[in-house]
Design brief:
Strand content: 5-15%
Structural class: alpha+beta
Number of helices: 11
Strand order of the largest sheet: 2-1-5-3-4
Helix content: 25-40%
Number of domains: 2
CATH superfamily of the largest domain: Alpha-helical ferredoxin
């Protein structure tokens, strides 16, 4: 039986010579609503520099080859979350995806807009629906008995901060939405990032809005729509773990239901207390 050929990664691991290409071809999805019935691909040759990321290649194309290429970017530091795209079928931040990972023995890179979002132009997606879902879960501190400035400030221990810090790292890049099969199948599903941010505030000791968010998310289009595939966590560039946040939320929803069933009048107070522990 013939042996299976080694991938470039395996060749590199075994110390074999893998030639870095001087140039690489980017196949980029193009779409102009005023003239195109559907998206198509155009190819561009760009130089390969060791320190270049995919975003550098896109900037090179826009500056040197085709100024009409349209895409979003801002910080180039993995903070703003605006440069998310599909790179060879994987949701990636293009500012953190190095050309050298693909430029071995003449490989190509295919760049497309994030899937499951309407395309505005070229690599730019429409985020109105995502922002509406984000607003729906109320990702801000909710207080029912706020202190006056003269009464002091809300203090937190390091342990209370650690309870929600991981979920607070979300940069709204929407890579998790492009990776989630449920988002692709059910357009009303709230989605991973929105639920993770809701859990971020539920776990904040200063917040009193857990009941209001639970009323929004304890439904099939909320946490119960998640099938726990885990792709959202795998692609998250900030290690937020949206899948873990959703499972925590499911547990809270079950406990909430049980408390309401056993103690209908007291479950809201108990819910607020448990969320702030």
């Amino acid at each position: 039986m013939a042996s299976r050929p080694k991938s470039n990664l395996r060749r590199y691991q075994y110390g074999e010579q893998v030639k870095m290409a001087d140039n690489i071809t980017l196949e980029i999805a193009r779409y102009s609503p005023e003239r195109d019935a559907k998206p198509h691909f155009e190819s561009f040759q760009v130089p390969v520099h060791k320190e270049w990321v995919v975003l550098d290649a896109l900037n090179h194309i826009k500056d040197k080859l085709d100024g009409s290429l349209t895409y979003r970017w801002s910080c180039r530091m993995g903070i703003c979350g605006s440069c998310g795209m599909m790179v060879n079928g994987e949701p990636k931040l293009t500012c953190a995806t190095f050309l050298s990972s693909y430029a071995r023995n003449g490989n190509k890179i295919r760049v497309e807009p994030l899937r499951y979002f309407p395309v505005v132009r070229d690599l730019v997606t429409e985020l109105t629906d995502f922002l509406a879902k984000l607003k729906k879960v109320r990702p801000w501190l909710i207080r029912h008995d706020d202190l006056r400035p003269t009464e002091g400030e809300f203090l937190q221990t390091p342990g209370q901060l650690d309870a929600y810090k991981q979920f607070s790292m979300c940069i709204n890049c929407t890579l998790c939405y492009a990776a989630c099969p449920v988002v692709g199948l059910d357009p009303i599903f709230v989605g991973p990032a929105a639920i993770a941010l809701a859990q971020r505030y539920n776990k904040d000791s200063r917040d009193q809005g857990a009941d209001e968010r639970m009323a929004v998310l304890a439904h099939p289009e909320g946490v119960w729509g998640c099938t726990f595939v885990g792709e959202c966590t795998r692609v998250c560039p900030k290690h937020v773990d949206p899948a873990g946040a959703i499972q925590q939320y499911k547990l809270s929803a079950v406990l909430d239901w049980m408390k309401a069933f056993v103690k209908p009048r007291g479950h809201q107070a108990v819910r607020r207390e448990s969320a702030n522990d």
